[in-house]
């Protein structure tokens, strides 16, 4: 998700939905009202991380099950633990709020960007 806000008023002016964006989208996307200068619009790209889970997967080998016909079948000879992707989640202290915005439980337009001392987004306030 990419969030655009007015640097002076901190009001949210638009968003680009999604969790994964290519470099071109991140660099070149811009949403701004017509009466606001481009320099007055801030852009915040919400960082997401991949979550993983461990699952058991069968270890399968091909074995001859009938020596007369040389028929071969897959045989489970054990299990192994495998790390697989279990989705993505926001990698910020206010992750629950970002998830509420994504799922439509809360409107992002009712919030303002909360900025740190260096002008970076550190959260959102009503």
Q: Give me the number of helical elements.
A: 2
Name the shape in a single word: elongated
* Gyration radius, in Å: 24 Å
Beta-strand proportion:
over 45%
In which range does the helix fraction lie? 10-25%
Nearest-integer average pLDDT: 91
Q: Strand-and-helix sequence, N→C?
A: EEHEEEHEE
Q: Structural class, from helix and strand content?
A: mainly beta
Please give the alpha-carbon distance between the first and last residues: 19 Å
Q: Low-confidence stretches at least 5 residues in length (pLDDT < 50)?
A: none
Give the count of structural domains: 2
Give, in spatial order, the strands making up the sheet with the most strands: 2-1-3
Largest sheet: 3 strands, antiparallel
In total, the number of strands is 7
Describe this structure in words.
The structure is a single chain. The chain has 126 residues and is mainly β. The chain has two domains: 2-47 and 92-125, no CATH class; 53-83, no CATH class. It is 12% helix and 50% strand. The protein has two helices and seven strands. A three-stranded antiparallel sheet has the order 2-1-3, with no helix packed on it. It has a two-stranded antiparallel sheet with strand order 4-5. It has a two-stranded antiparallel ribbon with strand order 6-7. The longest helix has 9 residues, at 95-103. It is elongated, with a radius of gyration of 24 Å. The model has no long low-confidence stretch (mean pLDDT 91).
């Amino acid at each position: 998700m990419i969030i655009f806000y007015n640097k002076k008023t901190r009001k949210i002016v638009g968003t680009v939905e999604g969790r994964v964006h290519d470099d071109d989208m991140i660099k070149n996307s811009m949403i701004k009202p017509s009466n606001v200068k481009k320099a007055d619009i801030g852009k915040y790209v919400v960082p997401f991380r991949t979550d993983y889970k461990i699952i058991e997967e069968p270890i399968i080998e091909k074995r001859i099950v009938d020596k007369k016909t040389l028929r071969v079948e897959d045989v489970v000879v054990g299990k192994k633990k495998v790390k697989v992707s279990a989705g993505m989640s926001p990698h910020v202290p206010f992750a629950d709020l970002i998830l509420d915005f994504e799922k439509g439980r809360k409107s992002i337009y009712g919030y303002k960007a909360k900025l740190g001392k260096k002008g970076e987004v550190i959260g959102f306030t009503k």
